[in-house]
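Weekly sync notes, structure subgroup
Attendees: PM, AL, DS (notes)

Item 1: joint prediction request from the bench team. They want all two components modeled as one assembly rather than separately. Inputs as received:
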Amino acid sequence: MEFDGIRKSLSETLIISLLKESPMHGYEMCTEIERRSNGFFTFRHSTLYPVLHKLEKKGLIKGKWRTGSTQRPRKYYTITKKGISYYYENAQSWKEFFGIIQKLIPEMAQ
Amino acid sequence: MIFRDYISRIEKVLDVPWPERKHLLDEINAHLEDVFEQNIRDGMDRDSAYNTAIQKLHVDAEFVSSMNDVHATLVKKALDRLPQSLLITIEYGVTGLVAVVIPVMVIAKEEAMIEFLLSGGFFMIPINLMGLAIIILAVERFYSLVIKKDHSPPNINRRLLSLKFLGLGTTLIGIIGTLMGFFQAFSAADRVMEKFNGVFPIYEVSKIAITTTIWGMTMSLVALCTYYLIKAKADRISDMQLP
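Output from the run, pasted for the record:
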């Protein structure tokens, strides 16, 4: 797997993992990723949207405009059945990937 | 809408088809508003909140290119896979076919149309040739801007000067042709009157008017051609100087 491929696959898995818990809109996802990673993942928010739209085109997530707590329309994304299977497949791949990395860099396992 | 100007700047560089384009821009705007309001809650003044929201979103060439890729139509994706040289050949081939063959076929079917195109005499030759060039340019622009959806500013401005030149040129030649026609008709009427020792009054009256207008229009045509040649050259030089 090339580095660029890893980066893209990681973004997709992170987004799907968040949406597996509850529907969210773009800004919510950005703040949630930053909060959960204790600020480790800080990124340009614009990088989120091409990934979201790609996942939506693939049918892994579905976007719908509705008014949330702010009473203003926001596009909320929800995970689809196809997205859930994709999540489990991807999560397994990441598990294997980190297993290999730990073998290559033993200090990581400690 | 606080971010209207910023959103319209993004819209100018996006090559995403409608209605996805509108939905995407609404989504980006909603995102910016959320960050802006959060910044205000965090105690920032409006200007800082506005600028920080834009900085955090950070729309750049990578975003535009990724979005264009995600929303590219099947036709565009297929065309992008073809080699550039083949694409140019197809582009000009299709343009030529649509712009030349189809009108010629339509016209050839109508005898009255052929008669009309040839009936104007000498002045119809440049008008027909320039008209053909106008159709070719119009079809090429339609293909490039509507079908291929290349909305980059250099492409939008391409061939505008030629279209302007051809549009003004055909108008001037058409008016010169009209006046020449009047002039010929009046002088023919005058020759007939001469045989009966009379004078055709309109010919005498309109002689100065028609002559000066024809000459003025001809000079205007010379000026238009010179302007076009200089402007085309100046544009090429300034394009080369851009970073």
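Discussion: The mean pLDDT of chain B is 82.
Action: AL to compare against the crosslinking data before next sync.
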